[in-house]
Design brief:
With 332 residues, this protein is of the alpha/beta class. It is built from nine helices and 14 strands. The strands form four sheets. The chain has a seven-stranded parallel beta sheet with strand order 3-2-1-4-5-6-11, sandwiched between helices. Strands 12-9-14 form a three-stranded mixed beta sheet. A two-stranded parallel ribbon has the order 7-10. Helix 1 crosses helix 6.
């Protein structure tokens, strides 16, 4: 039976990838430090190890104990906006941690390394963003993701490590950490609604994103290793239809059955418009399932009401406070 390692498998996207892998007959080992995920997210059939990919000695032991066929590397601290202010932490977690996993994958000759990068690598390039564009990331998070992509290509050229790179964007759905104030806008909105608080929007709310339902994204990532034609290629994955953040706030309130208000905050330094082209993924993996934003929000809202309110904690290891949005330092 196929054995796969999923780093970050207790997190949002990772947990869904684990579920899809187990559903298709894989045995799965999960490693996660629970900094952003939850033990309850992990499928009961998976073997769970608590630990960080930044711990290379732990990874050495893990790879020595298990003969992995495939590695799905999803572990990351994916707070893109916050990454400006936690640069050392960002590069340690998202770049050095990734290199540790790549090293062990090379040494143990895994068949394919699947990496979830991000649309953040494109920076402010004009939409629709295509895989053949030269990436120009705008923040340390995107820089780290692009560096890992480049390292995977170098590892393939030098050692023959096959890889598949996915660039998902604005993914939402069940298991999202709604208590994280720095990322996951849909989760932030739902958590605020349940607390009868105004929804916080940076700037005028007219920045646009294509919000992607997890059920449309995770199965593509999980099943990609069965497509040899996908090996050593990069794919955008996610939704095609873009919405403004203001529209999203209004649709989220409707999905939650609540009437609320929007609190507009000073704008932050972020990409104004971000949508990706998905023709390459459709050609390789097929059209797949397309869940409307209304339907996806309704599914997530049902889950969020069951999960309940989650306290939003401050990130305590801020390295640079200059220009840090004040809301990120507020107590709740």
């Amino acid at each position: 039976m196929t054995l796969s390692l999923v780093t970050g498998g207790a997190g949002f996207i990772g947990a869904h990838v684990v579920n899809a892998l187990i559903g298709s007959g894989h045995r799965v080992v999960v490693v996660d430090d629970l900094s952003g995920g939850f033990r309850d997210n992990v499928h009961p059939a998976a073997v769970f190890m608590e630990g960080s990919v930044s711990d290379h000695a732990l990874l050495e032991r893990l790879f020595n104990e298990h003969d992995f066929d495939y590695v799905y590397h999803l572990a990351a601290y994916a707070a893109e906006g916050l990454s400006h202010f936690i640069r050392r932490f960002n590069y340690t977690s998202n770049l050095i941690g990734s290199v540790n996993v790549i090293n062990e994958s090379v040494k143990h000759k895994v068949k394919c390394f699947v990496f979830t990068s991000s649309i953040a690598v494109y920076g402010a390039l004009p939409p629709p963003m295509r895989e053949d564009m030269a990436p120009t990331p705008k923040d340390p998070y995107g820089i780290a993701k692009l560096a890992v992509e480049q390292d995977l290509r170098a590892a393939h050229d030098m050692f023959g490590l096959n890889y598949i790179i996915f660039r998902p964007h604005n993914v939402y759905g069940e298991y999202q950490n709604i208590g994280d104030r720095y990322r996951n806008v849909v989760g932030i909105f739902m958590n605020q609604i349940m607390q009868h608080k105004p929804l916080t929007v940076f700037g005028d709310g007219l920045q646009t994103r294509a919000f992607s339902y997890i059920g449309d994204v995770a199965p593509v990532i999980a099943g990609s290793v069965t497509k040899p034609e996908a090996y050593n290629r990069t794919f955008n994955v996610g939704a095609d239809t873009d919405y403004t953040v203001k529209e999203l706030a209004e649709m989220t309130m409707k999905a939650m059955g609540a009437k609320g208000s929007i609190r507009f905050l000073p704008p932050r330094d972020e990409v104004r418009h971000a949508q990706a082209d998905h023709e390459r993924a459709r050609t390789c993996f097929g059209a797949g399932v397309v869940t409307s934003l209304e339907s996806g929000l309704a599914r997530m809202a049902s889950w969020a009401r069951r999960a309940g309110i989650r306290k939003s904690r401050r990130f305590e290891a801020i390295e640079i406070s200059h220009n840090l949005p004040p809301i990120w330092t507020e107590d709740e």
